Amino acid sequence: MAQRIGQYTLRFDCPPCIHGYASVVGKKEATGPLSGTFDIVNEDSHFGQKSWELAESKMQQLAIETAVHKAGKKVEEMQFILAGDLLNQCVGSSLASVQSGVPYLGLYGACSTMAEGLAVGACLVDGGCAERLAAAASSHFCSAERQYRFPLAYGGQRPPTAQWTATASGAVMLGKEQSHLQITHAILGQMVDMGVKDANNMGAAMAPAAYQTLSALFQDTGHVPGDFDRIITGDLADVGGGLLVDLFLKDGVDITPVYSDCGSMLYGDDQDVHAGGSGCGCSAAVLCGKLLNDMQAGQLKRLVFAGTGALMSPTSIQQGQAIAGICHAVIIERKD
Amino acid sequence: MAQRIGQYTLRFDCPPCIHGYASVVGKKEATGPLSGTFDIVNEDSHFGQKSWELAESKMQQLAIETAVHKAGKKVEEMQFILAGDLLNQCVGSSLASVQSGVPYLGLYGACSTMAEGLAVGACLVDGGCAERLAAAASSHFCSAERQYRFPLAYGGQRPPTAQWTATASGAVMLGKEQSHLQITHAILGQMVDMGVKDANNMGAAMAPAAYQTLSALFQDTGHVPGDFDRIITGDLADVGGGLLVDLFLKDGVDITPVYSDCGSMLYGDDQDVHAGGSGCGCSAAVLCGKLLNDMQAGQLKRLVFAGTGALMSPTSIQQGQAIAGICHAVIIERKD
């Protein structure tokens, strides 16, 4: 059973374990600073498909299959697949798993989806609802660009605060059976609306939500940032990440020694992505590549993975609605 | 703890209870056969808002508030809100609860969303993750029509198999504390793709998924249709409902004595909705109006509520992808 500690945080007495994980990315992501940490790289972002939307589905399908295979299981042995993406009606995820024959739970948390899937998945495993399940998320630069912004060929200008939607997917297989990577805590966040209306500055819209969720996690658990090897958000990128650091500094808390953001980690300064990466797949692939690799290797023992989402649609932006941010988080620990 | 019985069904040993429920609808829905069963009716479908999208949000917000108030609680006492809708990026639901200050879990299951929320919500309550939470879903004819089909003023023709998106929302407050309406079982369904590509015949796309989930539920629990007072799908409407009856008849099982569909119940033959109602709000409002009223009054003791969703987007349809169906279900029992 999960125990609620403090106001928001859930502690799992028999922590659900990570049995397998995998990341799949496009060429741009594979040639950045995290080169070599991904399981599968596609050279042309098409993944052998005839549309960008099908390419995204294929990428997510590959991530799920690879994560499950690395755990020595088959996809059809999963009891649930929890997945989501940025495409309208989340078709990237439904098309990815439609042939799997596995019960499917569609999630929508914008770029927080991977963390939402891990948190809900951990609750389901902990509560006896599943022995094993897969959680996944994806995004694709080309499918997102034409859905949210302009046709690719238009070449629209991007302001310096804009983030670059990653062509990436990550998947985790969680299970009841013990392994040394465990999800010990989860926290589902509330929406925070600070009135940001600029869809080209989503880092600013999400930073207050990350601050709220991480503050609640520290308060509920009694931990301070230094108790963790890394605190990772995804994806506030450079602008939002800087704001998060500032918000904590106002409380006299310096998170910088342990803090990084997936959107800032994925691309190099020479890759012309402006503020950094974004998209459900960005944090999913960084977690399921570099971060879990480092945990697997024993270089990280205790990690906060905090997914941040900007809850908006092109219609809500056109109608002048503010962008609410949300942040869900899990604590992942290595137990030897 | 939940017990997995058979291959897919979860049985809750301490069943999560329904403490409150509410339905909010537009004028067309309120003047149909279920007139008088709804909590709030808005006469002009605007709900005092300046856009159809905000009207939908307001409707869902009212449903959540009313359900929680009927249980003698306040919205801020909820530990989670689980919600979803049909709008791109599920903004109807995020805008509905952005000011609530309650941790928010975004779901996407198309018209199966209310059942998905009840199933996941029951798992969270049962697993100790929440003492009390709200699950909600909504749809609005006008916001759906311009997003999925044509501008309202265009007056596009609809074929006889088309369904009418209900302007409706429903919400349930679930809790650990005992009450006489209980969710005893839940089953999350897998996607079923039978190759249907006609977005004007979503009943046909969803019926095989309903058949699969209900068959699994019967097999896992050992029940036959006659063990239930009612088996309710939502929303297959007239075409899909007929197909579901036929699929069971091929197995020698006649579900007709106990079977109804929310899409067929909501509108009268004289309301020009063709095959019947649809939209996340249709089954949500019929459940949280007529059906739970009848359970509350003791007229129904044991109900299967099976939400059916058509997983597609306008882009996936334009690209020639088939529409996968999905069906999630819960068993609700009255214990005196």
Fold and architecture overview:
- Two copies of one chain form a homodimer.
- Chain A is an alpha/beta fold.
- Chain A has ten helices and 15 strands.
- A seven-stranded mixed β-sheet of chain A has the order 1-2-10-15-14-11-12, with helices on both faces. A six-stranded mixed β-sheet of chain A has the order 4-3-9-7-5-6, with helices on both faces. In chain A, strands 8-13 form a two-stranded parallel sheet.
- The relative contact order of chain A is 0.19.
- The mean pLDDT of chain A is 96.
- Chains A and B meet through strand 1, helix 3, strand 6, helix 4 and helix 10 of A and strand 1, helix 3, strand 6, helix 4 and helix 10 of B.
**Quaternary structure classification:** homodimer
For the biggest β-sheet of chain A, the strand order reads 1-2-10-15-14-11-12
> Helices and strands of chain A, in N-to-C order?
EEEHEHEHEHEHEEEHEHEHEHEHE
Estimate the mean pLDDT confidence of chain A: 96
Kindly state the number of beta strands of chain A: 15
